[in-house]
């Protein structure tokens, strides 16, 4: 079975829209370049994300090719404002007006703002898994499922089964090495999900029964190659990874082969 990297998504501002790329470099901090390198924080420095404020789902963002500018708008409106990321004062005022309290944009280009400080690398999922989950929710197209789970790397291949990526982690105290092209990546664990996937990615509206249905279906379809001991509950999906500093400067490209160590 030949598995390849089918798509790369980075999320330059944490919790906002993703950007599809044909290739992405690895930073010395082990993240994809331009992935979650900005974060919206409140006056106390606490990250503002979908878990804290549902209104963040309604923010649409578009970036220029060099990731120097961002255009923001609210879902359902035609008004769009463009900002220079290196000059954030105007952007901070706009965001503070949108949320109704003082927030600002914080930047960390090397290590970014990952949710998991140990498995800080890109998250990985297979197209087959997204397609399987979309089948659990007849009203949701696969693109909605993809946007709800926000994985960085999506892999595909002829005959690849759903939840193929569950073979990319081992026991609690060990990591599973694999390669995507020239980049060596370590698989850590199945990603524990939060409230965000239960919501419409455009409006933030909750999908009734989403988490309960997901957990029951995930339990029933857990593949034999998954390490069941890593599931203290079944609201886990996609694989958390890390990338060593030795891989800095290497690049991932769509079409790269995915090979198990």
Describe it:
The strands form four sheets. Strands 1, 2, 9, 10, 11, 12, 13 and 15 form an eight-stranded mixed beta sheet that branches. The protein has two domains: about 5-30 and about 115-260, Beta Barrel (M1 Pyruvate Kinase, Domain 3); about 40-105, no CATH class. The chain contains four helices and 15 strands. The chain has helices at about 90-100, 125-135, 140-150, 210-220; strands at about 5-10, 20, 25, 40, 60-65, 70-75, 80-85, 105, 125, 155, 175-180, 185-190, 235-240, 250-255, 255-260. The mean pLDDT is about 95. The chain is an alpha+beta fold. Helix 2 (about 125-135) packs across helix 3 (about 140-150). It is globular.
Level of helix content? 10-25%
Annotation field: number of helices: 4
**Overall tally of domains:** 2
Q: Give the biggest sheet.
A: 8 strands, mixed
| Helix and strand composition category | alpha+beta
> End-to-end span in angstroms?
15 Å
* Contiguous uncertain segments of 5+ residues: none
Q: What is the CATH T-level topology of the largest domain?
A: M1 Pyruvate Kinase, Domain 3
* Inertia-based shape: globular
**What's the number of extended β-strand segments?**
15
> Can you identify the CATH class of the largest domain?
Mainly Beta
Rg, Å, rounded: 18 Å
CATH architecture of the largest domain: Beta Barrel
Order of helices and strands: EEEEEEEHEEHHEEEHEEE
Strand content: 25-35%
Average pLDDT works out at 97
């Amino acid at each position: 079975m030949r598995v390849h990297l089918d798509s790369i998504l980075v999320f330059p501002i944490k919790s906002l829209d993703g950007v599809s790329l044909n290739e992405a470099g690895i930073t010395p901090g082990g993240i994809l370049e331009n992935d979650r390198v900005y974060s919206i924080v409140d006056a106390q420095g606490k990250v503002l994300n979908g878990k804290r404020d549902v209104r963040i789902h309604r923010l649409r963002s578009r970036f220029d090719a060099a990731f120097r500018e961002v255009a923001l708008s609210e879902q359902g409106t035609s008004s769009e404002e463009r900002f220079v990321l290196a000059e954030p004062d105007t952007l901070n005022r706009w965001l503070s007006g949108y949320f109704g309290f003082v927030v600002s944009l914080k930047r960390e280009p090397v290590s970014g703002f990952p949710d998991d400080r140990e498995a800080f690398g890109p998250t990985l999922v297979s197209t087959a898994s997204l397609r399987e989950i979309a089948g659990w929710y007849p009203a949701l197209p696969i693109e909605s499922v993809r946007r709800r789970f926000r994985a960085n790397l999506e892999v595909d291949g002829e005959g690849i089964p759903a939840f193929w990526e569950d073979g990319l982690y081992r026991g609690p105290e060990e990591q599973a090495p694999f390669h995507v092209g020239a980049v060596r990546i370590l698989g850590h664990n199945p990603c524990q999900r939060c409230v965000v996937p239960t919501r419409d990615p455009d409006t933030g509206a909750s999908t009734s029964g989403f988490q309960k249905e997901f957990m029951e279906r995930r339990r029933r379809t857990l593949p034999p190659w998954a390490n069941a001991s890593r599931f203290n509950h079944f609201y886990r999906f996609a694989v958390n990874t890390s990338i060593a500093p030795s891989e800095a400067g290497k690049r991932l490209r769509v079409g790269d082969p995915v090979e198990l160590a």
